Amino acid sequence: MAWLAEMRVNWLERTVAGLDRLARWRGRAEELPAHLAVGLEGEDAAYFHLLRKGYTVVARRWSAGNLPGDLDLIAWRGSLLCFFEVKTRTARDATPAEAAVDQHKRATLRRLAWQYVRQLPQAEPPQVRFDVMSVYLESGRKEIVHFENAFAWKERRQPD
Questions:
Q1: 94 and 51 in a common domain
Q2: Is 159 contained in some domain?
Q3: Helix boundaries (H) for the chain
Q4: Pairing relation of β-strands 127-138 and 71-77?
Q5: Residue 160 domain-assigned (yes or no)
Q6: CA separation (Å) from 107 to 74, 104, 121, 139, 141?
Q7: Residue 137: domain span
Q8: Does residue 53 lie within any of the structural domains?
Q9: Which residues 6+ apart lie within 8 Å of 51 measured at CB?
Q10: Which of 116, 120, 9, 113 is nearest to 54 (CA)?
């Protein structure tokens, strides 16, 4: 049955890509700045990667409305709630993509995640994990590096 699930995800990915091409061809696609288009392509690649790994993705680009920023992807892995930050690059330079998730970005993601968890109907908050996914789009290839449990609810204090 795993092959059937894989086939479904592959079919869905090809269908979405085809619809995107059709929208661009018909002039109905939203014109985005290049860096935003690259980011969306990376988030799409991460989304399909998670589906292939058995995650249940429940939200994409989730925003609290009253807080700045958004959560790129939110997914369940069994009873574990995972928040994903996706960083996409078109080239590998001296700094890896995941390095862009600095202390300020992590604090923003924690605030948004807490807001999301608070609105869940469960009496007890679920176990939570923060992951970072680096997506490299080079020469028509997509490479995804998934950092599970990249950071926690609280920052570890650095020794003086």
A1: yes
A2: no
A3: 2-25, 34-52, 103-118
A4: unpaired
A5: no
A6: 17, 5, 24, 34, 32
A7: 33-151
A8: yes
A9: 9, 12, 57
A10: 9
